Amino acid sequence: MNAFTIKDLENLSGIKAHTIRIWEQRYGFLRPQRTTTNIRYYTGEELKTVLNIALLNKYGFKISHIDRMQPGEIRERILSLGDAKAIQERIVNDMVQEMIDLDMEKFEKTLGGYIASKGIERTVTKIIFPFLEKIGILWQTGHINPAQEHLVTNVIRQKLMVAIEHCISPMKMDKTVVLFLPEGEHHELGLLFMYYLLKSRGAKTVYLGANVPVKDVEYVIKLKKPDLVFVHMTATASTFNFEKFLANIEQRFNGISTIISGQLTQHYKKRVPSNIHFKRSLGEVMDYLGSL
Question: What is the CATH number of domain 169-291?
Answer without folding.
Answer: 3.40.50.280
